[in-house]
UniProtKB/TrEMBL annotation:
It comes from the Bacteria. Pfam families: ATP_bind_1 (PF03029). Gene3D superfamilies: P-loop containing nucleotide triphosphate hydrolases. It comes from Stenotrophomonas nematodicola. This is ATP/GTP-binding protein. Keywords: GTP-binding, Hydrolase, Nucleotide-binding. CDD domains: Ras_like_GTPase. The keyword Ubl conjugation does not apply. The keyword Metal-binding does not apply. Belongs to the GPN-loop GTPase family.
Length: 181
């Protein structure tokens, strides 16, 4: 039996909780509390983590951990990354500020496990302008040129599954390389 631990990181409001809920079919343990940050336009925010446990074919399991996005909870990121099989970093592609904040999540991964398979999910595609597309492309090229970046709407399970397919392919490739060494 194989167990996969997937950690979902990203700034506040990028869709981490929604993505975990979409994959886990709503069967999620969450630690959402009322949002007290007036700058963030959302009613609640994750305090510790979201958790989903998903049975896979063949008796395998996927355990999903959604992290809190605020920088003050950065101490949790390495704890949740311990033993991870892979990570997803969600980035609001329309927000330069959010892209800048996402760098700290990528740095946490690189500092904890530089060879960890990672996929970037670009959210908020529905309100994307041409200039934002160029800005986001430049950000990706300068920040994470070797990481796959996939447009995703965390509310749409099929798009989330596509993102997961890319991450699972990376995880499987890494396992094959290790087996050949």
């Amino acid at each position: 039996m194989q167990e996969y631990k997937i950690v979902v990181l990203g700034p506040m409001g990028t869709g981490k909780s929604t993505l975990v809920q979409a994959l886990a079919g709503g069967q999620v343990v969450n630690t959402d509390v009322r949002n007290s940050d007036p700058a963030a336009l959302k009613a609640s925010t994750t305090l510790a983590m979201d958790y989903g446990d998903i049975p896979l074919p063949g008796g395998h399991r996927m355990r999903l951990y959604g992290t809190p996005g605020q920088r003050r909870f950065a101490f949790l990121w390495p704890i949740l990354l311990e033993g991870a099989s892979g990570a997803i970093v969600l980035v609001d592609a329309t927000s330069e500020a959010t892209r800048t904040l996402a760098i700290s999540h990528l740095e946490a991964i690189a500092g904890h496990s530089p060879s960890l398979p990672v996929v970037i999910g670009l959210t908020r595609q529905d309100s994307f302008s041409v200039s934002q597309l160029g800005d986001c492309g430049h950000w990706l090229q300068s920040t994470a040129p070797s990481l796959p970046a996939i447009p995703v709407d965390p509310r749409k399970p099929q798009q989330v599954l596509t993102l997961m397919d890319v991450l699972m392919s990376q995880i499987e490739c890494q396992s094959l390389v290790r087996a050949l060494d």
